[in-house]
Amino acid sequence: MATKAFQKIYTKLSNITKATCSLKASGIGYEEMALVDGREAQVVKVVGDEVTLQIFQGTEGVATNAEVVFLGKPPTLKVGPELAGRFFNAYGEPIDDGPDIEGDERAIGGPSLNPVRRKQPTELISTGIAGIDLNNTIVTGQKIPFFADPDQPYNSVLAEVALRADADKIILGGMGISNDDYLFFKDRFTNAGALDKIISFVNTFNNPSIERLLIPDMACTAAEYFASEHNEKVLVLLTDMTLYADALAIVSNKMDQIPSKDSMPGSLYSDLAKIYEKAAQFPEGGSITIIAVTTLNEGDITHAIPDNTGYITEGQLFLRRDTDIGKVIVDPFRSLSRLKQNVQGKKTREDHPQVMNAGIRLFADAMNARTKRENGFDLTEYDERCLDYALEYSEKLLAIDVNIKIDEMLDTAWMLFAKYFQRHEIGIKDEIVSKYWKEVKKSD
Questions:
Q1: What is the CA radius of gyration of the chain?
Q2: Distance CA 19, CA 12 (A)
Q3: Residue/partner pairs of 263-268 with CB below 8 Å, 24 or more apart
Q4: How far apart are CA 234 and CA 303, in angstroms?
Q5: How many domains does the chain contain in total?
């Protein structure tokens, strides 16, 4: 960030904390960028002429007479078609040894699309993952989180979604990811030959944690450019929103603000909503869909981060390890897409809603049978069939490594129904059963 000759230089800091500094200055705007002793900083508080800046690289070594130069604008991103296939840091600067972007400069973190301009989401966005597309179908313009334990392979799942999703552009925002994960994303996208539609903004674990606060806004600004100006279907993938919220807490605590629940700042809800509300279906045809990972602390769904996230978003996707098959699955009981009815049976095959309901109900019967067995009760012949069905249902439709089209998911479900049950046991309308039932030769 270069300074200009006419910019005023301040040299008297009144207060310095571990992440912020304060000084008296006039004509300064909220979220305006500045340089403090040559370090990037952003205005986070303005009270009269008292201005507080958060310094992204920390304040260690910053003296009270350090030079402060305000840049007169919030953080910006240069946008253009050449963003595609590139990797950037939290400031929108290339980190892939490629050339600088020569596009239009856009302020990040602006207001979301006016609700009166939004179109009701009715378009399918398939991910290629059966546990999502079959049971928790996602709609363009939807915002939905992945809730996962830290030891689950959520970044691998996001990479697969990026490669399989039916979208014109995929924008990845990585916050506090490891260098191994960064290289994994880069190598996976490059080797798959998919870089032409993927844009990545990355803050690694080694970068200052406060820089994570810029990543979602960078990703959403790029998404808005392609969705609104090119009418493209854009999917934004964010990981990990828990680390983003932790960075919010760091800044809040170092500004001596009184924490709210679970040591989170009182502004957590609005900070998260500002990001998630960028998801929208534009009337002209473009759309922004957001899937964001929120890691859980020992599976605690009541923690302030997932709790607030649940109020803002339109459902949730839970990952859990199925010990019976030894794979991570999309949990059919705890996962929910609140907009799936907008496309199931309308943009997908007519039998989709009933197949989804029947498949999960039979899976629930299997879980009941397992509970009976664990408590020493005798199992019926139906119970035994349900347990066998559940194993194959998990393996072929819930596991995150299942990569098939929606019609094939439905056909697979019908095959499992016929293999383990009679027609009357699956609870689907006769006219649908007659049309799609596939007889399977039973093994002796």
A1: 25
A2: 17
A3: 264/304, 264/305, 268/304, 268/305, 268/308
A4: 30
A5: 3
Question: Is residue 269 pLDDT above 80, yes or no?
Answer: yes
Question: Which residue type, as a one-letter code, is found at position 232?
Answer: E
Q: Which of 54, 70, 86 is the last residue of a domain?
A: 70
**What per-residue confidence (pLDDT) applies to 17?**
84
80 Cβ neighbours under 8 A, 6+ residues apart = 101, 102, 103, 104, 225
**Cis-peptide, bond into residue 240, ω within 30° of zero:** yes
Which pLDDT band, with edges at 50, 70 and 90, does 318 fall under? very high
CATH code for the domain in which residue 192 is found: 3.40.50.12240
Q: For position 221, what pLDDT does the model report?
A: 95
Residue-wise pLDDT tens digits, 164-217:
899 999 999 999 999 999 999 999 998 888 888 999 999 999 888 888 999 999
Is the same domain home to 140 and 238?
yes
Q: Report the alpha-carbon distance of residue 201 to residue 214 in Å, rounded.
A: 9
Residues 156 and 254 in one domain: yes
Q: How far apart are the first and last CA of the chain?
A: 74
The residue behind tokens 């546990």 is 131
User: pTM value?
Assistant: 0.90
Region 339-367: what's the mean pLDDT?
Answer: 96
- Say which DSSP state 96 is in: S
Q: 429: burial class by Cβ within 10 Å (0-12, 13-18, 19+)?
A: exposed
Same domain, 146 and 294: yes
Question: Of 1, 46, 4, whose CA–CA distance to 26 is shortest?
Answer: 46
Count helices and strands (H / E) in the chain: 11, 19
Are residues 104 and 42 located together in one domain of the fold?
no
Same domain, 53 and 90: no
Asked if residue 169 lies in contact with residue 223, where contact means CB atoms within 8 angstroms, the answer is yes
Pairing status of strand 9-10 against strand 33-36: unpaired
Nearest C-alpha neighbor of 438 from the set 384, 420, 388, 134: 420
Cα–Cα distance, 405 to 345 (Å, whole number):
15
Cα 198 to Cα 153, 193, 267, 288, 289: the distances in Å are: 20, 10, 31, 14, 14
Alpha carbon of residue 423 to chain centroid: 39
Q: What is the mean pLDDT of residues 365-391?
A: 95
Please tell me the distance from the alpha carbon of residue 155 to that of residue 293, in angstroms, as a whole number.
8
| HSE (side-chain half, CA atoms, 13 Å) at 215 | 34
* Confidence at residue 441, expressed as pLDDT on a 0 to 100 scale: 57
Residues in a beta bridge with 327: 322
Cα–Cα distance, 129 to 239 (Å, whole number) = 18
